[in-house]
Structure formats: C-alpha cells, structure tokens
Specification:
Elements (H helix, E strand, L loop, with lengths): L1 H19 L2 H7 L16 H8 L4 E5 L2 E10 L2 H17 L5 H11 L1 E9 L5 E8 L1
Antiparallel strand pairs: 1-2, 2-3, 3-4
Length: 133
Amino acid sequence: MMIKSSKIMILCLLVLTLGLTGCSVQMAGSIKDPYENSTMAYGRDRSFVISQIGQPIKTDMKGDSVFDMYRIKRNSRGWGYFRAVVYSFLDVGTFGLWELIGTPLERFIQTDEEVTIEYDQNQKIRQIHYLQI
C-alpha cells in the first residue's frame, strides 16, 4: 500500500513539474522591442510618438497641454532571449523545479514603467514624466 501511494505522489509531482515548465522561458522570450529613447525626445511630434509606441492608455487635456499616458515594459529583448536560453537549461537540469524560482524572478525583472508625455499647443513634447510601477 505504501509503495502505491508513493508512486501516485511521484506521478503528481511529475505532472505538476511539467505543468510549470516553460513559464519563465516564455516570459523572458516574449518581450517586445523596447522603444528607442530618441522616440521620446523633447520637441518630437505627438503623431510620431504614437506611431512608434502605439496609442496611449489615457489622454488628458489641461489648458493648452495634452498629456498621454503609456505603460511600457522596461527590458531589453537581447537579454530576454539570453535569459530564456539559460532558463531552458535550468528547467531541464532541475526537471522543471527551476520554475518555482524562475517565474517569480522573471516577473520581478520585467518592470512596468508609467510614462506621461506632456505636449504643448503645437503637439510637440514639452515634458516627460517617468513612474516605475
């Protein structure tokens, strides 16, 4: 009876491990290209910024100023691919147990940044405000 229950426990652990495998690898490998810093240079036109970064999540108007808010992942794609390869080897070497550390670590590494861009009456960048989330 003891042998049968230990086999079931090992089988459950194996299924759980296989279910976790690949989460950190997928997270690290699926990072979007970061925007170029020159995209958000002072004096840039609003339409250019939107064409490069995409539509803002929120837009406000105050007086003659327009405020566009973006939420951007701050991480480089090259390092993401490197981490994905390393995580793959760690997954295989630890039979998937690496995911217990790797997935929370990858969530911590990929920080979101809230960027608010203020435009003047000519739709040119006046100020940029960064807030790490």
